[in-house]
Every structure is written in structure tokens, then in C-alpha cells.
Specification:
This protein is mainly α and 132 residues long. The chain has five helices and no strands. Helix 1 runs antiparallel to helix 2, helix 3 runs antiparallel to helix 4 and helix 4 runs antiparallel to helix 5.
């Protein structure tokens, strides 16, 4: 005999529904933040930069991780690792405007900035591996 709740769902069906709802909320919140920054940028680039520079993705990841695991040691480790991975990502924001200023066009400039960022990630990962 299967037990059903007030909505006619079994325990397994309820768990599946809650899991899908949880992921849907994560996707919706993340998408809304991206859309908000791009819309704000159309009117106020400095304010959009401020919003984009906030560690919103990191905060959301930490919140989702806590909700899913309640493992504060894992959250502490993630926070520490995020700190070190932010540093090489800054290369993108230095290279992109420089290449655009030098007249390379948007797509080539973006590609060069992403490439520089990837190189910086590898250098950072190598340094972390060497000194830990």
C-alpha cells in the first residue's frame, strides 16, 4: 500500500517534485541576476559594474551548498578557493578594454581577454599546487 499526501503524491513523487522545484528556483534566480545586470548596463554602466562585481554567484553557490549539505567546512573551503580563483579572473577586465582601445574589435578583444584569463588560471593553479 502506497501512502499519498493531500495532493495525491507518494513520498517519492513529492521528493522528485521538490528536487525539480529546487533546481528551477536556482536557475530562475541566476538567470534573473544576469538579465538584471545586462538591462542595468544599458542605462548605467557604473551601477551595472557595481552589481556585476558583487560576488552574487559565489554567495548563491554558498547558500545553495549550505541548503543542500549544511556542511560549513565545505563552505569554508569553497570560500577560500573562490578567493584564489578571483585573482586570475581579473585579467579579463584588464585585457578586454585595452584590446578594444587598440582597435581590435569586440570579438577578437573578448577572445584575447578570455585567453589571457585562462593562462592566468593555469599559472594560479600551478602556483597553488607548488606552495600547498
Amino acid at each position: 500500500m502506497m501512502f499519498k499526501d493531500g495532493l495525491g503524491l507518494t513520498l517519492q513523487e513529492r521528493r522528485s517534485f521538490m528536487e525539480i522545484l529546487h533546481y528551477s528556483i536556482k536557475v530562475a534566480v541566476s538567470a534573473l541576476l544576469i538579465v538584471a545586470v545586462s538591462e542595468i548596463a544599458k542605462r548605467h554602466s557604473l551601477f551595472a559594474a557595481l552589481v556585476a562585481s558583487l560576488p552574487i554567484v559565489s554567495i548563491l553557490a554558498i547558500i545553495w551548498l549550505y541548503i543542500e549539505t549544511s556542511d560549513t567546512a565545505r563552505i569554508s573551503e569553497l570560500s577560500h578557493q573562490i578567493f584564489w580563483m578571483v585573482i586570475p579572473s581579473l585579467a579579463l577586465f584588464l585585457v578586454l578594454p585595452a584590446f578594444i582601445k587598440w582597435g581590435f574589435g569586440f570579438w577578437l578583444s573578448l577572445g584575447a581577454a578570455v585567453a589571457a584569463m585562462i593562462v592566468c588560471y593555469f599559472v594560479t593553479l600551478y602556483c597553488i599546487k607548488m606552495y600547498t
